[in-house]
Amino acid sequence: MTVFEALSLMLAFGTLVLMLSSSKKK
Q1: How many whole angstroms separate alpha carbon 21 and alpha carbon 5?
Q2: Would the pTM count as exceeding 0.70?
């Protein structure tokens, strides 16, 4: 696993968490 792959995975996970948290607030 390269650093770029790990970064992209973290980005995708962060986006999912943000979407979930924003939907919970609404």
Answers
A1: 24
A2: no
